[in-house]
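User: quick one, fold this
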Amino acid sequence: MHLSGAAYLLILIVAAMALILFLLHRTRLGPILHEQIPERSHRNLFLASVSFFITFVLVRLLVLSITHHVGPFGYVTMGGRHIHHLVWGILLLLVTGYAQLAEIGQQDTTLSLFADRLLALGYGIGAALTLDEFALWLNLDAMAYWSKQGRESIDAVVLFGAALAMGTWGAPLFRRLLWARREP
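Assistant:
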């Protein structure tokens, strides 16, 4: 049976998410993460950063293997039209955003904590899938992905990764500065 590149990517991402969630819920890693990053929002930023990084690396490797004809990978097509992975990223960002608006994963139950972590991982994955093709959606040209403008994708990923890291590690500072402004 021949699987498409998207199927392989989906399998890898689901396996990585399952492994991360297993480690967080069934090993000592979860409590350690909770102790070291006590605020839920910081943990979510950290998980989004981790899933962003893993997904970006996997997508880059998959696209390189497709373009160099290494392995059984191929592009996703429907009716002869190439479906870029930014489409799946946008859909995932829409789903995770809607779930956040619906306040899924906001309670203190085990199931809610699991959903919260799953949404953080999903957000990082969706952002990586979308930003990997930044040059494509900026220029609306599929060939931009491999041109000089393709560098814009890398720049966008680096900038977004830096923003996630700043949010993860700088959140206590930002929160303290914000509260200092509000105090009379």
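User: anything notable?
Assistant: The mean pLDDT is 80.
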